[in-house]
Amino acid sequence: MSDSLTRFTEDMRKMLGVKTIDIDAPMAQLGVDSLNIVEMVIICQQIYTNVTNYEDIDIDENTTIRELDAQLNALSAD
Predict the structure, then answer these.
(1) I want to staple 50 with a disulfide (CB 3.0 to 4.6 A). Which of 4, 16, 58, 76 is the partner?
(2) What is the pLDDT of residues 11-65, one digit of tens each?
(3) Would you say 65 and 21 are in contact if contact means Cβ atoms under 8 Å apart?
(4) Cα-trace Rg, the chain
């Protein structure tokens, strides 16, 4: 796992208050709801500091942590 994926996974695990988390499970299955989205965005902004345009992220209830990490890394300006 990449450093960003490891950190994102750990921060999401803490946010959701669970002991383990499946990075390939859809967000809805993990229990992410509209109340968690703001906190998740803050987590992403702290980890993926080189993302220049967060509006380009394609996320829905079926997006996984691994997929979101890949998107954010692809959107990162080097």
Answers:
(1) 76
(2) 999 999 999 999 999 999 999 988 898 899 999 999 999 998 888 888 999 999 9
(3) yes
(4) 12
- C-alpha distance from residue 55 to each of 31, 33, 51, 68 (Å): 23, 19, 10, 13
Token duo for residue 68: 């979101």
Residue with tokens 């208050």: 17
**CA terminus-to-terminus distance, the chain:** 20
pTM over 0.70: yes
**Residue 57: both structure tokens together:** 């992220």
Q: Measured between alpha carbons, how far is 3 from 32 in angstroms, rounded to an integer? A: 22
